[in-house]
Amino acid sequence: MLTLGLHPGYHDASACLFDGYKLLAAVSRERLTRQKGDGRGDVPDDCVDEVLAIAGASRKDVSTIASTRSALRQSCYSHFKGRRAVEGRIREALGREKLRFLALEMARARTLDPLAIIDRERFLAAHGFDAAATLHFANHHRCHALPTLFFTDWDDALLYTADGGGDNVQYSMHAFRDGSLETLYGDDEDLLVDNRVDSLGMAYGFCTQALGWKMNRHEGKLTGLAALGEPSQFAAMRKHFMVTETGEILSDFKSYSAMKAFLFGLAETSSREDVAASVQALLEETILASVQIMLRRCGATKLGLAGGVFANVRLNRLLAEDTDVDEVFVFPAMGDDGLSVGACLDALAERDGMPSWLEQRHRLDDLYLGRDHTGDIDVVLGNGHNITRHDGNPADLAVARISSGEAGAIYSRRMEFGPRALGARTILGSPADHAINDTLNQRLERSEFMPFAPVVREERASEVFEISSLNAYAARFMTITCAVRPEWKDRIPAVVHFDDTARPQIVRRDDNPLYHDILEAFERESGLPVLINTSFNVHEEPIVDTPQQCLKALNDNRIDFVVTDKALYSLA
Questions:
Q1: What's the total number of domains in the chain?
Q2: Residues 138, 140: Cα–Cα separation, whole Å
């Protein structure tokens, strides 16, 4: 039975498809439209078509549609009456239909049942689904939380989510113990109360804006910049936030406009580096205090994290090392693109019950969930103008060029899901020379304050980095930083940050044989078990998806070569 997951958001829209409990496909809208972070509200039909095509299915094959409570067409609601109903029908006829947030409409209607205000038959018909299909709408933060439990084998856990806000709250905390999941904060009951102005995610985003970058896009730049500054404005920021005895985070701001004005004011009187360091310190101290209280409340030994706040890899390391947990897992698609997966998991839990749902849990092997273009890549590159094909062992061919100072892309497996390049669309280079950070960033038109991330084989990871059972699972998906062991810092300077940490990806051969073989061959050649891993994209563009996009990057001299499972390609 196919379950289709949807996130029809205004940013990071996505869709995914489950067959039973097997995740068959998942795609973010940005990969299809080539607009970074794309989301336009309404059902992301292009994503739906993509995941169904990957599975060889049609809309009529879908038995359940599971969605977040985001922006939907007004015609799909059943509770509009009088003038608003007439206006809606006119707009629909003119093709100018309004989109309305389901969560907001639920609050206005004072109902916790989304289907009480949704015209189910009209929704299904409007989007081409079978009339008998089940329609399920899931809580935003529960959609963030559930993947952190489903993709583990834990007996107990605190599931903690934090972001800019969703379904009227900015955080949620769930305790998993004795086979049941209890909401400590952030349940649907909070949908009907006044929205609190307490989001650290919004505060971090406002500081990103204040430094001249884009909110919901460039927060990673601020994280990197923070290591260069002093938290001189931390005290001024911290006095506006508090953590209650029960672990909830509050602020004394009356509106987000007031929060933004305050933070912009601080930015006018401080250096960029100090603003970044201050808001990073605010985020770390406040979230850590909240998590510690919540862990004491539920007695958990494992910590699951999701929501856009936990794209912050420095924060994730702090939570791993400064709490008493045994393991931390960050759902790799921690932002809103991952909500479609959580919506499916919520629908499955409702359908089958939590005991059956728990029996299906498993750890993630990989996130190669997009379309498989490996059958086309060699044809497209081979027919490319001014492109030379080099035959032989692809791993050895790539290593020979990397060792000579070149940087090239690996194009293998299906497209990754989530924000990180994990070896399907990754640029590789030698970590031995820090200067590659500048030269490659110039070619990719990037301005970054963090070095490139390292990739390392699983069997060598703990020798180079401080990796243990605490952080190894998270590190497989580049969602956490860790210390670089002292004897390696000077040997791999291109991947070591100012604070002597790195954000590694740990690779197993079964997950990506070509990736693993290149690492192994590079170590034989250089003695270094690490390579640079940076995403295969130009600044402000999503990660490369299709062979045609790959060819363009090679022709534009963004990279020196492309290596596939069959050959290596370079400009003639």
A1: 3
A2: 6
pLDDT at residue 91, rounded to an integer: 64
Give yes or no: residues 99 and 37 share one domain. yes
Q: What is the CATH number of the domain that holds 15?
A: 3.30.420
Q: What is the pLDDT of residue 80?
A: 75
CA pair distance 364, 529, nearest whole angstrom: 24
What range defines the domain where residue 259 resides?
152-330
Domain boundary among 278, 304, 330: 330
Q: Judge if 123 and 212 occupy the same domain.
A: no
Are 186 and 308 found together in one domain? yes
The string of pLDDT tens digits covering residues 195-229 is 789 999 999 999 999 999 999 999 999 999 999 99
**280 and 386 housed in the same domain:** no
Tell me 307's DSSP state.
S
Among 308, 288, 300, 322, CA closest to 479: 308
Of the candidates 233, 563, 517, the residue with the CA atom closest to the CA atom of residue 406: 563
Q: What is the mean pLDDT of residues 542-570?
A: 97
Q: What pTM was computed for the model?
A: 0.96
Quote the tokens at residue 550: 């790959």
Structure tokens at 439: 């030269």
Over residues 497-528, the pLDDT tens digits come to 989 999 999 999 999 999 999 999 999 999 99
Residue 471 sits in a domain of what CATH number?
Answer: 3.90.870.20
Among left, alpha and beta (phi > 0; psi -120 to 50; other), residue 557 is left
Are the C-beta atoms of residues 464 and 446 closer than 8 Å to each other?
Answer: no
Closest CA to 417 of 473, 370, 378, 383: 370
Distance CA 176, CA 186 (A): 15
Instruction: Note the Cα 45 to chain centre separation in Å.
Output: 21
